[in-house]
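Re-running FecR protein domain-containing protein to confirm reproducibility after the cluster update. Everything else is unchanged from the original entry.
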Amino acid sequence: MRMSGWRRWLLWWLSLSLALLPLAGCETLGGGPGTVVLAGVVIDGERLASAQEAGAVLRVWRGGAALPVQAGMALMPGDRVETGPRAYAVVRWPSGSEVYMRPGSAADIGSLRRAIGEFFVKVRGLFAVETDFVRAGAKGTAYLVRTGPGGSVLVTVFDGRVQVDSLQGRWLPVTMERGSTAVAHPQAPQPVAAAPAELQQTQAWVERIEKLVPVRSYSGLGVAITAVTIGALIAAILGGKSGGDRGSTPATPAGRGATPAGTPAPAPAGTPDSQPTPAPIRLR
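Result of re-run:
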């Protein structure tokens, strides 16, 4: 049966939209697919830096040379980002992971390596912040890393779990739970409950930065949902064209041995929920 003109036009439009969705979903600010970006630069935790100010309060080094700095610029593995005494920076990964750098901080882009200063990490997928002595890694969590004198590293877990162990095997792995804090170098970490005032202080500055540098990209989940929706519409058009052109077909009564309409299929046996194994924080 021939498809009506409006159905052909709608099917063409939906098919084109579905084909273009992956391109839309991969665009994040100025970066292309799979690009890490400098999502924003904030001055004094109160306002976005102008195009002229960004380069004066923040530096990006590549191969020993300073790059022109602007919000939305693409970052490459090995680039070093350094914030000045007044600058906060937001670095965003394609997975949706974000790192908020406080003033006076620096790190190499990879996950984050050779980190110095203070960083708040919101993780989607595997991610790690690595200093000269400590690697704080996790999957699906939020945590703070702050370096101190003599290579000391304070780790505070805001959500999820983080595991700490020694690269030299000096102690057994230690799992840090939500709301705990510990110094991970030079001694073995001994997690204790974080002070509420410390947690609130961190949450306050993180929320200020979040409001100034909102997410400006399609999320992978949003693209997936949209793709499924468009695909369902296409299937409905193709499957319903005969009904639309020839009229509805009466439902056939269920025969012997048939499953009556509306009867749910047997559910498969479920599996117990399991917690993801946290990635380690390794100390040298």
